[in-house]
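Fig. S4 source data, part A: sequence.
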Amino acid sequence: MMMLSYYFDLALRSFKSSRGLTALMLLTIAMGVAACMTTLTVFHVLSGDPIPSKSRQLFNIQLDASPMRGYKPGNEPNLQLTRFDAENLLREARADKQVMMSGGNVPITPPQAGQQPFIALSRNTSADFFPMFEVPFLYGKGWTAEDDKSEARVAVISKSLNERLFGGIDSRGKTLRVRDKDITIVGVMNDWRVVPRYFDLTNGAFSRIDDIYIPFSTAMVLRFGISGNFQCWGDPAGGDARALNAPCSWIQYWAQVDSPEKARNYRAYLNQYSEQQRSSGRFERPSNVRMRDVMTWLKQQQVVPEDIGLQLWLAFGFLAVCLTNTVGLQLAKALRRSGEIGVRRALGAPRRQIFAQFLVEAGSLGLLGGLLGLGLTWLGVQAVRVGASNYGSLIQMDSLMLLSTLGLALVASLIAGILPAWRACQVTPALQLKSQ
């Protein structure tokens, strides 16, 4: 411990004796670390597990209801389900929990006189949405499966919408005017932001959370607005793509199965269902079921922008260049101190102590560079927040990234210090003393 303290003291003296060179090395390390950690922070936020407690138990469901036209074995099925299939699966309820949904938008008339109506993002869904996706509640709770069946005029609203309309008070039981219909509020969500928004990628993986949640059955009866992706392979009867028997896929369907065995059984059930629909003439193609858990689904859909991966590689390349420059500067500094090293060696200091001394100096330089790099990383993150349009506001440093910044700076500087430290401990005392 005493030797370590002594090495830190020597490092401090060395920094003071060559302040310009020390400042240059600090800036080099800080810039390399900041470039790397800024990009890594963006990648960490965008590629993280949005629901780690159950991401392996939640599965996106795809069935292939398209006609044989254009069929190729192994092709991906429709991204979403038809309303007919989604309602069938929901009614049969073979999973532990299941949910069908679609995005939407509805006009809201504020209860206070004089306020202008506005359009709110909505989600037409079923009762299991809230427990399945672990939605936090400020007041109340979601509706029940019976409400789904009875087409109840109920809704759950977001915290921000509750504050806008009711000043943040407990609004359960209050009436909300949606388009020209009265809807009763049964719950108010707490702050909730899912990144990425895995359960509905068709309306944007990094979009903000919807403001109002309405039973799917109710939204269909009241003909509330729908948003998202529609894929049709025929003309719907009456021109209504949302009709029960319309040849259109537009509904996201998720199932929760709580064990690997249940997952295998549920997949077998989906294949059986697909074959039944084929036998009845609804499905033309061979069974083509896809059942992907959250992280597999996000990877398959390539949610993380491709340029982020390239930027990450470029940032690590820039860090490597910075480390190479730092190695050169530290080597030059070590050569300048050959006389000092020769004296220490002549007084009995073994090579391992010289090596440890220079490695401690490199580590100290890395920690200081890491602290400076933290500041530069923060500036980089702020620049991303301002510049990135669809996900910028989501980017922020957490405790893991803070510790990673310091850790990366320390490890990088130690790696950069190995060669100069090894070169320093090879100094021959006799030659240095003779030259003095």
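Fig. S4 source data, part B ends here. The CA atoms of residues 23 and 377 lie 18 Å apart.
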